[in-house]
Amino acid sequence: MYIVMIAPECAPAAKVGGLADVVFGLSRELEIRGNDVEIILPMYDCMRYDHIYGLQETYRDLWVPYYDRKVHCSVYFGFVHGRKCFFINDHSDKNFFNRGVFYGDHDDPERFAFFCRAALEFMLMSNKHPDVIHCHDWQTGLVPVLLFDVYKYLGMTHPRVCYTLHNLKHQGVVGEHILRQAGLNDTGYYYHHDRMRDNFNAFAVNLMKGGIVYSNFITTVSPNYAGEIKYSDESFGLGHTVHVHSNKFGGVLNGIDYDFWNPEIDGYIPYHYSADNPDGKYGNKDVLRDRLLLRKDYKPIIAYIGRLDHQKGVHLIRHAIFYALNNNCQFILLGSSPDPEINSHFWNLKHELNDNPDCHLELGYNEELSHLIYAGSDMIVIPSLFEPCGLTQMIAMRYGTVPVVRDTGGLHDTVFDAEYTYKSYHERNGYVFTNFDYAGIESALHRAIGMWYSYPQHFRELMTNAMRYDYSWNHPGEHYLNIYEYIREK
């Protein structure tokens, strides 16, 4: 099967979050299964060009419609760790992708609407007719709209569209000018509530809604999050739209790349280990303590790795730090915040705890250090308000680091409580709490710390249970191929 991914990110060249890992990991799995996969991305100036091999211009003069004129672009091709990637490089006075950032500018909807049009124009002009176009998040929501209402009539009648929702908090809500920019000039037609008009702002269009309405199949990144989108406020206003299109909607759990996240072969950690022989984990714990100047003592290390924002339960993360320190544990944090106020708060906290031999806060992101923290920690906290899928808990479990999570989204689908679950003992792999408050996270940490100290053999069994789970791309890859085959036949 010939598949084209259209996405705003692909790890490790252009990565902001988990979406980038999904695009890379799923593409790789599909290729392993014998499919031809290409990825189309913006050519950001801030990409990691050291992860792109053989980069060269492959299409020099691409003229992309933009309002009542055309913008000159060129397209580059290169391999991102074996993945075939095309990069749209615009030469407009708007300078869409040479901003020093991936996202965060006031005109992001305009930037990515242009990218959608450019990606399809490139496919048309280079005679690409894939079986499936797989689009990701609001940034590519206009692709199925343009394909169905514009490019189908220019000869692109073959492709079907699978559209994946990674996080419904961000939807691309913008004024009607975006339609005229993209060449969808019958604005009254698209403003209809059954098409692209935002469900709560009658004067705006919703790019993600357009993707939902016009695609052939919609997925989200875990089965439980799919249910939350339908039946709770986690839809952020799109619940009705998903209900209307529920006959083409389902949840597929993300995977992780076990060639990269694997303590048996990980080049970033000094001691390799496995579920059958986990003792190397304790050597990594000593190295981690030496690196971060933590005292060596008979205590568990609790970690947090990830973004610091309200979605991630930032107040509960802070509470967990002090709860751990007050209950004879050590705590390591690796992360930063896009919110200056939160970032400032954690810098002050870092200074406050700087001399504590049981605590280290690393404000930023360091790939090498993250691997060592996963390998050397005993537990990891993920107290998210909502979590569409979550990769952190899957990575942690692969490294035998027991997750302590809130019962939401993909965390519900992957972490099963040591005491309170329908799963058999050999399937239990972590600690789960329900209430998004201090008492909730304390209850789970109290049980986890208590088992570590009082029943070390049981904790070790929990650790090895977690390591034996298969959260690779093997199963999601099969699910997506089934979806592709389903929409090809329609």
How would you describe the overall organization of this protein?
The chain has 490 residues and is an alpha/beta fold. The protein folds into two domains: 269 residues, Glycogen Phosphorylase B (Rossmann fold, 3-Layer(aba) Sandwich), CATH 3.40.50; 189 residues, 3-Layer(aba) Sandwich (Rossmann fold). It is 37% helix and 20% strand. It is built from 17 helices and 17 strands. The strands form three sheets. The chain has a nine-stranded mixed sheet, sandwiched between helices. It has a six-stranded parallel sheet with strand order 14-13-12-15-16-17, sandwiched between helices. A two-stranded antiparallel sheet has the order 8-9. Strand 1, helix 1 and strand 2 form a beta-alpha-beta unit. Helix 2 crosses helix 3. The longest helix is centred in the N-terminal third of the chain and has 18 residues.
